[in-house]
Design goal:
The chain is α+β, with helices and mostly antiparallel strands and 664 residues long. Helices cover 57% and strands 15% of the residues. A six-stranded antiparallel sheet has the order 3-2-1-6-5-4, sandwiched between helices. The protein has a five-stranded antiparallel sheet with strand order 8-7-11-10-9. The longest helix has 63 residues, at 214-276. The N and C termini lie far apart (176 Å). The relative contact order is 0.04.
Length: 664
């Protein structure tokens, strides 16, 4: 082979090595092969120079390739930042690229914990040690602490022997557990110059000794700058989202308050219009129920309903159990017997007192209760059901409605007291001189809204002397809301309620409520119904006698009528209803005799007439003694096991005697 041809072949060999990206040691074999092939002198020198030039070209190409890879990585990182959705994902990508580009065993990123006052591992790549992954560094500790403190990059070829860093047991233990030797750390900086702020650090580390080049330091700094931008952008986005959420919340609050103000204004206008148009308490309850979409009832200070339950659009609706005054009872205050009563009233009064003490509506048994006050005087309460979630504006509306209710109750009470004084004069004249001018009394009553010619019940109430002054006011309060009338007379109070109940039932209900209102036992007797001045006066006299009998019998604080007092009622009653007493006492025996053709009434009369002797009774009746016993057993079955007790025996004997007398 000619000499020039041989040199050219070796030069082509160098070009092939460059094209294939062969390792550096392969280039040195070209000159060696040329020397073995007999090339020497200037030709060999030329080949050696060409080899050095090829190595320089190879180095330049590899540097360009590395820069291209770095630029590609930075470009990809910039793209990740532009499409930032998940901060952790972006940081993991940056750490992974740092490890790949620098060719290290591991890479990691630390961030400060402002609450704890130290630094923690946020992202790691290539780490195998749990101890290392959970390391926490104080400012100035270890290489990372120095980077954060000085805001400058630091590199060490062998961390364990490098005395530039403040070594601690925990950090050294973590580094040793991970097996790290060479470490490069750069700061995550926001801003530039002296005004820059370190918000973390980015690291690349090897498990063998290594010296990091300036290019590698610059590359890691570039990635750290991108990481700082990602963190700052994510924080800005988070702050923006929080600000937007707070703005939306504030906007919602403003809209809610605006709507509440508008609703409060409309409610105020509606309630004011009700008062100006002469609306009553029941109208206010209906308006509030409609506004709050619940069920509203107005109660007096004693816990008894003043109005029927008004049902709003969102209320429970339907009919509630009847209360003491015939109105709907509160659903939240049902007595232990399931029908309402004293337990209802007591529970409601306690809830109203709590409302007065707190100056706000309170929740009791799932219902809202608001005291109705005139100064410190308790006039009554409002009860709202069907709205367990009563919010601020609606709660304030409910509380304001109690003020309107108190105004109407005060107005009604003033009118009622004025009317009651005039009606009281009429009652006094009716009781003292019913025959003086009956027509005039009827006319005066008609002018006051009382038809004396219509049947009325008459109640007479009394209480202890030390609380007697409370009874008249309690009577007005008891009759409040109806067409009844009351007046003081001879140390007692007469009430003419607007009720269709029997005298005994009316007296019992009045005794219960008046006792509660007065705070001491109130005894009430009833009579009637009676129509006309003279009959009403006679009914009052009968009720007064019955009241005296109740007191003598020790039934203090109870209610009753002459018809409920047995033979005493016959003596006390104005009409002396003998037939009614006989029928009430002997009725079961008389009916049995009529149906069966037996002689139970005659046998009972003979038994009592013979002093309870069975032997004498059988002689009187001309029957066997066993027949007497059998008939008396039947009497016991019809009248009850205590038919022969002293009290019942007395009434039976009196009824038998009155029956004989009435039959002539």
């Amino acid at each position: 082979m000619p000499k020039n041809t041989s040199v050219a072949a070796h030069l082509r060999r160098l070009l092939d090595l460059l094209a294939s990206g062969a390792p550096a040691e392969d280039f040195g074999t070209v000159a060696t092969e040329a020397r073995r092939g007999g090339v020497d002198g200037d030709d060999l020198a030329e080949i050696e120079q060409a080899t050095q030039a090829a190595l320089r070209v190879r180095g330049a190409l590899r540097q360009h390739q590395r820069r291209e890879a770095e630029l590609t990585a930075l470009f990809d990182t910039a793209g990740d930042l532009a499409a930032l959705r998940d901060l952790d994902a972006v940081l993991r990508s940056i750490v992974r690229r740092a490890r790949m580009l620098l060719g290290t065993d591991t890479a990691y990123l630390t961030l400060p914990d402002e609450e704890a006052g130290d630094t923690f591992m946020r992202v790691t790549d290539g780490s195998v040690s749990e101890l290392f992954q959970n390391l926490r560094l104080q400012l100035g500790e270890g290489l990372g602490g120095l980077v954060a403190q000085t805001a400058r990059p630091y590199a060490t070829p062998d961390y364990r022997t490098d005395e530039r860093f403040h070594h601690t047991h925990s950090i050294d233990a973590g580094v040793l557990d991970e097996g790290l030797v060479a470490i490069l750390g750069v700061p995550l900086l926001l801003g530039s110059g002296s005004g820059g702020k370190v918000i973390g650090a980015l690291f690349a580390a090897d498990r063998t000794p290594r010296t990091f080049s300036p290019d590698e330091v610059a590359l890691l700094c570039s990635l750290a700058n991108h990481a700082a931008i990602a963190i700052d952008t994510a924080k800005a986005m988070t702050d923006a989202r929080v600000a937007l959420a707070e703005l939306a919340e504030a906007n919602a609050v403003i809209r809610e308050r605006s709507a509440a103000m508008q609703r409060a204004e409309e409610s105020h206008d509606r309630l004011s219009d009700l008062v100006l148009r002469g609306g009553d308490v029941a109208d206010v309850a209906a308006a509030v129920a409609d506004l709050l979409e619940g069920d509203v009832t107005v109660f007096d200070a004693g816990g008894w309903p003043l109005t029927p339950t008004a049902h709003g659009a969102g209320g429970a609706g339907g009919s509630a159990p009847a209360g003491p005054s015939g109105t709907d009872a509160p659903k939240g205050f049902v007595g232990t017997d399931g029908t309402g009563g004293t337990d209802d009233a007591a529970a409601l009064v306690r809830a109203a007192e709590e409302s007065r003490a707190t100056a706000h509506a309170v929740v009791h048994d799932g219902r809202w209760v608001c005291a109705v006050l005139a100064g410190q005087e308790m006039l009554g309460s409002l009860v709202l059901s069907g709205r367990p979630d009563l919010d601020g504006p609606d709660r304030r509306l409910f509380e304001r409605s109690s003020v309107v209710t108190s105004l109407l109750l005060l107005l009604r009470r003033s009118v009622a007291e004025a009317e009651n004084r005039v009606r009281g004069d009429l009652i006094t004249d009716l009781l003292t001189a019913p025959d003086r001018d009956p027509a005039g009394l009827v006319a005066r009553g008609r002018n006051l809204g009382i038809d004396l010619n219509r049947p009325h019940l008459v109640l007479v109430a009394s209480t202890d002397a030390d609380v007697r002054d409370r009874l008249a006011g309690a009577a007005v309060q008891y009759l409040f809301g109806g067409d009844g009338v009351s007046a003081e007379h001879a140390g007692t109070v007469m009430l003419v309620p607007d009720s269709g109940a029997t005298p005994g039932d009316a007296a019992g209900a009045a005794a219960e409520q008046l006792t509660h209102l007065v705070g001491a036992p109130v005894t009430v007797a009833g009579a009637g119904p009676a129509a006309g001045p003279r009959a009403l006066a006679d009914a009052h006299a009968e009720a007064a006698r019955c009241l005296q009998a109740l007191t003598v019998l020790g039934r203090r604080g109870a209610g009753g009528s002459a018809g409920e007092l047995g033979f005493l009622g016959v003596l006390l009653g104005e009409d002396h209803d003998v037939e009614g007493f006989v029928r009430a006492t002997l009725g079961p025996l008389l009916e049995y005799d009529d149906r069966r053709g037996t002689q139970l009434v005659r046998t009972l009369g003979a038994y009592f007439g013979c002093g309870g002797s069975l032997t004498r009774a059988k002689e009187e009746l001309h029957v066997h003694i066993n027949t007497v016993v059998q008939r008396l057993d039947r009497v016991q079955a019809l009248l009850g096991p205590d038919w022969n007790s002293p009290e019942n025996a007395l009434e039976l004997q009196l009824a038998l005697r009155l029956r004989l007398l009435s039959r002539g």
